[in-house]
Amino acid sequence: MKKVYPIGEFAKKTGQTIRTLHYYDEIGILKPSHVSSSGRRFYSEDEIITLQKIVALKFLGFSLEEIKRFMQEEKWDLKESLAFQKKLLLQKREHIDRVIKAVTHAQHLAEEQEKMDPNIFSLLINSIQMENQQKEWLKQFMPDETVEKIFDISEEKQLEYGKKLLGIFEKLKECYGKDPGDSAVQSLMGELFSIAKDMEKEVFGEYLSLFHLKEDEFAEEPMLFPSPFSKEEEEWVAKAVEIFLEKEGVDLREEES
Q1: Whole-number Å distance between alpha carbons of 167 and 204
Q2: CA 145/CA 151 separation, integer angstroms
Q3: Is the pTM of this model over 0.85?
Q4: 10 Å Cβ neighbour count for 32?
Q5: In this structure, are strands 34-35 and 41-44 parallel, antiparallel, or unpaired?
Q6: Nearest to residue 70, comparing CAs of 30, 21, 32, 20?
Q7: Could you give the angle at the alpha carbon of 248 between the alpha carbons of 240 and 184, nearest 5°?
Q8: Cα–Cα distance between 165 and 41 in angstroms, integer?
Q9: Which of 3, 17, 131, 167 has the fewest Cβ atoms nearer than 10 Å?
């Protein structure tokens, strides 16, 4: 006669909770070998083997519904299921890697800024969250290999540029309301364009000539390329940029034509 265990003893022996065993019984993936007239559940060694299978499949990330289907089959055709499960797990790992990257960048910036503007923080997180979508969008205008190379810059450089840019955005927000031609505002414009030139050279390099895109095409994708500024701030910054470029001798009318 097979040895049987009351549900409490079986739970301790297998490391499961009584509540979990009740639930597995209810959904039909692990039935007790015997239920007394008073409703007490008893389990045998056979149920331990079944539970080991359930635990193994749960570890691989299969849902209880999928596990139930496996339990009903005498032989398991795992090839397709495992391939699909691996794909899902790789996607989850990629998501976790992006979250870790976002947290790392946020921590790096928080070391110097005790408080951060919510719009700028959202820009930081969204730029990492939407990286794959940004790549796909840019591939409409540039060769795939070129886009991948542009995004393939070191973590150290990403943090360096991110810190500089977000620092300037913070200062511009603090200056909002001043005359766009104010010396402090124009000084920030100088810093912004200096960083832009460095990024143009280091990030885009020889690929910049392949990139043919108008400013308004960025504006049509606000979720892919979010702005750290409000609409009013954007108009103010645009005016400051216009003044800066005029001082630099850039003929905006010629650029537009």
Answers
A1: 22
A2: 10
A3: no
A4: 21
A5: antiparallel
A6: 30
A7: 40
A8: 64
A9: 3
pLDDT one digit per residue (tens) for the chain, 257 residues:
678 999 999 999 999 999 999 999 999 999 999 999 999 999 999 999 899 989 988 888 889 998 998 888 877 777 888 888 888 889 889 888 888 887 887 777 667 666 767 777 777 777 777 777 878 887 887 778 877 877 777 778 777 887 888 889 889 999 999 999 999 999 999 998 888 887 767 665 555 554 454 445 544 554 566 778 888 998 999 999 999 988 888 765 555 54
Q: Indicate the length of the chain as a whole number.
A: 257
Which residue blocks in the chain are alpha helix, DSSP H? 7-14, 18-27, 45-59, 64-71, 78-110, 118-129, 131-138, 144-151, 155-175, 183-199, 215-219, 231-247, 252-256
Q: CB burial class (10 A; 0-12, 13-18, 19+) of residue 51? A: buried
Cα–Cα separations (whole angstroms), residue 55 to 19, 46, 218: 16, 14, 49
Pairwise CA distance, residues 54 & 47, whole Å: 10
Query: Which tokens is 23 given?
Result: 């639930």
Would you call 253 exposed, middle or buried from its count of C-beta atoms within 10 A (0-12, 13-18, 19+)? Answer: exposed
